[in-house]
Amino acid sequence: MFVATLIAAGKLTDEVVREAIDRLDATGHDVGAPHWLDIGDAADIVFQGSLVSARAELAKMDHGALDIVVQPQGDRTKKMIIADMDSTMITVECIDELADYAGLKPEIAAITERAMRGELDFRAALIERVGLLAGMPEATLVECRMERVKLTRGARTLVQTMKAHGAWSVLVSGGFMPFAGPVGEAIGFDKVLANELEIKGGKLTGRVIEPIVDSAAKLEALKAEAAKHSLPLAETLAVGDGANDIPMITSAGLGIGYHPHPAAGEAADAAIRHHDLTALLWAQGYPRRDWVMG
Q: How far apart are CA 248 and CA 254, in angstroms?
């Protein structure tokens, strides 16, 4: 059995739900009656048939603010979330904002964009960008975090709701601990992994301390944390936006691209392109009455 969750906060109509049912029925799926998670916001359609075919058919729906998540029904309520930080749990790319303080934002942001698209090796791109920040005062890290970093809407509600229902939460970032530590604490993550910047004499040296948190490290974190808590990968949720998130997204039970770059969006089981992070609660079957509001 599979479930298709239609999400269009404040805009989901009976007509849109009926179109989804008709599309599934017309492509040979055995479709049940729809169930509203929250009327006008999100609805479930349970069906039997082909997961791949259903995803392909429902992706043809064009209703502007509609996000669709199609997945196996049995283990949709996940017991672990592993999440990227930059442009996922927060609204900015920290290294790009740091670069702005050094007058290098256009140059560094261009490298970041190419790395997130998968056009550059993440590790090499990180080393190059951090190298350009050599000599920056350590105090600028705190200044940048306080002035520029904002939590993504729904981040706390997502993590706190999952934790309230027994899930383990991990923030794993290719960014930097001076940002990820406070962000993880603010959202309520159980564990935080990120890169450490080398600092000497109160200034950045332009080097990242090994080991670097890259795509392979993110995947390893997913597997290690799931094993630590005796969880099959089917019971995990991974969310991110860039190419360096693809290995963990494709290995998790449900891999979500959040307002993703094209490569991550194509690799993910589903993409959230229109809504905030609370869409991932509807995707897991949580109606709003069960959310822990952050």
A: 10
